[in-house]
Structure formats: structure tokens, C-alpha cells
Write a structure and sequence with these properties.
0% strand; 2 helices; mainly alpha
């Protein structure tokens, strides 16, 4: 096993030597640029997450407001329906009373 680790270490050092030959001093500049890009991507990701969270909160608030508005309108319609039903019942009673009065009036005229 020690031999395998030694071979791996040699391979790694050879890769590092090849990278140094190919890129030379530019490798640090590339690393710096990659780090800047990573930081920028992370910053943008966090900004997008904040925007999504804010939008989610706004949508939930709008849904709550809409739900409240719908409930108020339903309650208003229920009250209006009850009022109409009460008025119809009153009118019906008035017709019964009118009928009774007409019968009584007719009996008085006849008699």
C-alpha cells in the first residue's frame, strides 16, 4: 500500500510540474479569476434567493388579502340574501293580511 501512495504522490507531483510548465506564472492569475467568478456566482445566487423569498412573501400576502376579500364578499351576499328572503316573507304576510281584509270588507258590503 505504501508503494501505491508513493506512486500517487509522484503522479501528483508530475502533474503539478506539467501544469507549471504549461501555465507558468499565469496559473495564479487563473486561480484568482476563478475565485472571483465563484464569489460572483455565489453573490448572484444569494441575491436571486432573496428575490425569490421576497416574491414568495408578496404572493402569500396577496393570497391572504384575496381570501379575506372573498370571505367579506360572501358574508355580504349572505346578508343580502337574508334581507331579500325577509322582505319576501313580509310581502307574503302582507298579501295574506290584504286577502283577509278584502274578505272582511266583502262580507261587510254584502251584509
Amino acid at each position: 500500500m505504501a508503494k501505491g501512495k508513493q506512486q500517487q504522490a509522484e503522479a501528483t507531483s508530475k502533474i503539478e510540474a506539467i501544469k507549471e510548465l504549461i501555465f507558468g506564472e499565469n496559473i495564479q492569475a487563473y486561480d484568482s479569476e476563478f475565485e472571483k467568478l465563484k464569489a460572483d456566482i455565489l453573490k448572484k445566487r444569494n441575491e436571486l434567493k432573496d428575490i425569490v423569498d421576497d416574491t414568495r412573501a408578496e404572493v402569500m400576502t396577496a393570497i391572504d388579502n384575496l381570501s379575506t376579500d372573498v370571505n367579506i364578499r360572501i358574508t355580504d351576499l349572505e346578508y343580502a340574501l337574508e334581507d331579500k328572503a325577509d322582505k319576501l316573507n313580509e310581502q307574503k304576510v302582507d298579501r295574506d293580511t290584504l286577502g283577509s281584509l278584502l274578505i272582511t270588507l266583502g262580507e261587510k258590503i254584502k251584509g
